[in-house]
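Final paragraph of the annual report: two paired records, presented back to back.
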Amino acid sequence: MRVTKLLVVGAGPAGVAAALMASSLGMRTTLIEAGQVGEKLQAIGALENVPGGWSKGAELAEGLATDVERLQAGGRCALVHGQVERIVGTDDQVEVVLASGGTLVGNAAVVATGVHSLRTQDVDWIDASAELTLPPLWRTSAGELEAARHTVVLGGDRPLGTWLRAHPHAAVELEVLYPAVDAYKIAEVAEDPRVRAYEIEHVVAQTSVDGVHLTVEQTVGGLLTVTADVVLGNMGSKPAVPDGDLVRGPDGYCPPTVQHPRILIAGDLRSARFQRIASAQGSGAEAVLAHYYRAVDAPN
């Protein structure tokens, strides 16, 4: 059987797992990444549900980079640094168009571009002044928050729990304002005494000379006004979907079962409910296997 050329878009856990599986099946792979291999993992302080003894995101990121270097050294994988602008599937190939103007062509593409953090303008429960930009909680160090007088976190997404587990001895107090849809996630950190959580309907955030002034409409308890010197975003994420032929579901994510047969979806891009490192790795390998067996079973 002839060697298959596979394009893999994104070099996080799902993309690297896809490249490794492809190599084991004799496929030559081009791995495309805008940043560094495993870049987002660098800011994840604690890993508790990833097999293999990994305890920190930076350690796993280093391991992924080593895997890619090994594939490159064996001539089984080429790493291309570039921003993907568009992915197009045809009857016999997939084209990946880069922002730089280049085009890469393969028999199939595994798309593992992951997610972006939501911004205040992406959610309907926050009104924020135009000049206000919220740093994400998951990229914030313990030292930064220990030095703060009053820290407010907007949103109860799971990076809150990850941050707390990564910094178990940090002397911080986090005032978390969250919408009702995040209630089940807040329950996971309810026993941490460093968290004071308030379910809210709406918040208006405006910069002031003293920091950030917040007018909060609580679900129970009426209006609350707060002034914080540090306000962090933790509202969740949205899929990072390149233009082209990827099919989105009603929630904006890309279900694997409805895509072009040569476009394979892996990692966090599949669904808001499968955003875990271990499931991302499995999905990357599974996408490649699905493509491999489809090619094997196809009539010559």
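The closing record of the year follows.
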Amino acid sequence: MDRLLQLEVFSKTAELGSLSKAAEILRMSNAAASRHLSALEERLAVRLIERNTRRLWLTEAGQELLQRCGTLLNELAEAEDAVSDRALSPKGMLRVTSSLSFAMIYLAPMLPAFRALYPDLSVQIISANRYLDFIEAGIDVAIRTREHEPDSNIIVRRIGQMHRVLAAAPSYLEKHGRPEHPADLARHNMLIYNLANDPYSLRLSQGSTTQTVRIAPTLDSNDGQIICGAARAGLGILIQPLYIVQSDIAAGRLVPVLMGWELPLLTMNIAYQNRVRLPAKIRVFSDFLVSHIREHSEPGIWIDAAK
């Protein structure tokens, strides 16, 4: 157990930038914290932290150890919480951010069942297509479409991947014709989500063949619902994740085009701050959301959805 405590002292010291603050959080004296840190460095035969009278910083070996032991300590804390919180009902406020489309299609419909299980937990949904700062915005959980977070303190739990599709209203295709090849998109009215990665360049694949097409927007917007509304009205061809347009396609309001060509898959993740002890409210919400998506999505929308 001393070896685990040594890692906890090291990790907390690195996180807080102060041995005394780490000792206070871990409820031990400064002298005891210093002994644990020295014992760890002696056992590993390497200097982990350099320090002077003003500050401390990690050595290269310390940075590598922090990266490795952080995951270990977090998983251990989550395992302990999973047992100790089993009989507890999460309480308080959970703040969730996602795109408007995801909130409308998945979050809002699942809330009655979620609240029935956790009646003491309130939910606030912040609709935002740009990625808010967790600390500044007070966010607990974010639904995001990027695979990696630039901040190492953010944990990413994968929901799954899905196809993106090109689609237009029947009235538009009747007037302007249906594109038969990616190059045809250059002469069509394109409705573009301008927060996508490289939104004005489309990379489409068919078997071993890949075509990259530069497109100019007839409409670009930072919200998928605006783009969908314009497409249903017959303005042009949209590029959207399948989950957003599936109901319009099923009802005949939109018609997929270039079905033989595939756009890069879209990855959807749950993101939250890395904490020594993950709050129960974040854990139960994440588990419920993954289960809800798996059970209530139309067949074919998700690829390798989380279980």
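The longest strand covers residues 154-162. This concludes the annual technical report; the extension proposal builds directly on these records.
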